[in-house]
Specification:
Elements (H helix, E strand, L loop, with lengths): L1 E6 L7 H15 L3 E6 L25 H11 L4 H12 L2 E7 L7 H10 L29 E7 L16 H14 L4 E2 L3 E3 L7 H16 L51
Helix pairs in contact: 1-6
């Protein structure tokens, strides 16, 4: 496999940085090709503004989706974005690695998504009609590819459990897993989450590292999170609402969008 790891942490000597090195070494040991986009080291520009759309007339109002589509279709998006497009098309699997800051990804990584997931590339593709509503949620540019998150969290694991004060980790990561990765077609694997990251000492690091190595060894075979496909019949088109009767006896909230009774929780 060919794997792109997008890394978002300002300190390479951090736990997140050490786990990145573990993941890359194990993937390479398994014979996979690996490329890393180190956003902080690369000085990634995280804000979307007029400079992102070279073909936009100076006196034109900036409408980001329209400008994104125009420059994508003409191949005039900025060089840094087009380089990331090439990496994503090259890769069979995408790993986003980041610390959980204020219950989400760091701003620089969100900015990578905002700029790289352009209209016509990651969204706004496919037929929109009374039968389909675009190639998204299980279909799209990245269909057939895999993706997963490697996340370090400062809180204790019980804080992210079903009754935890921080909210279930599956719910906190749903906007990323479902809304950013599954939306353009990736098969999304359960995340690898390290809890109490700031309290992890040298003795505790190796067991965590070995669990990560095992996840890298099974990157091609781990079952993805069973999200429902938008155009597979579970949703009404064009409203996008789940069909009545499919919610299941115990499902509510984000869990409504899991297919059937099988619910894969974070295994690590």
């Amino acid at each position: 496999m060919k794997v792109l790891l997008v890394f978002a942490h300002p300190e390479p000597r951090s736990l997140t940085g050490a786990l990145r090195d573990v993941a890359v070494r194990e993937l390479e040991a398994q014979g996979h090709g690996v490329r890393v986009s180190d956003l902080y080291a690369d000085g990634w520009k995280s804000t979307v503004d007029r400079a992102d759309f070279p073909s936009l007339a100076p006196d034109a109002r900036l409408k980001v989706p329209a400008a994104s589509r125009a420059d994508f279709e003409t191949g005039t998006l900025t060089d840094d974005v087009r380089v990331e497009h090439e990496k994503l098309l090259w890769a069979d699997a995408l790993i986003l690695q980041f610390p959980l800051w204020w219950f989400t990804m760091p701003a620089i990584l969100k900015g990578w998504v905002d700029r790289v997931f352009a209209y016509g590339f990651a969204y706004g593709v496919g037929e929109h009609s009374d039968r389909r509503w675009g190639d998204r949620y299980g279909e799209g540019t990245f269909a057939g590819k895999r993706a997963m998150l490697i996340v370090t969290a400062g809180g204790w694991q019980p804080h992210y459990a079903a009754r935890g004060v921080n909210g279930p980790i599956d719910d906190l990561l749903f906007p990323i897993n479902h809304g950013i990765l599954y939306y353009p077609g990736y098969d999304v694997l359960p995340p690898f989450v390290v809890y109490s990251a700031d309290r992890l000492d040298e003795a505790g690091f190796e067991p965590v590292a070995e669990r990560l190595r095992e996840r890298m060894r099974t990157l091609a075979t781990t079952l993805p999170i069973p999200y429902r496909r938008q155009n597979g019949g579970d949703y009404l088109i064009p409203s996008g609402e789940l069909r009545p009767g499919l919610e299941g006896a115990d499902a509510s909230g984000f869990a409504l969008h899991l297919d059937g009774a099988v619910k894969i929780r974070n295994p690590l």
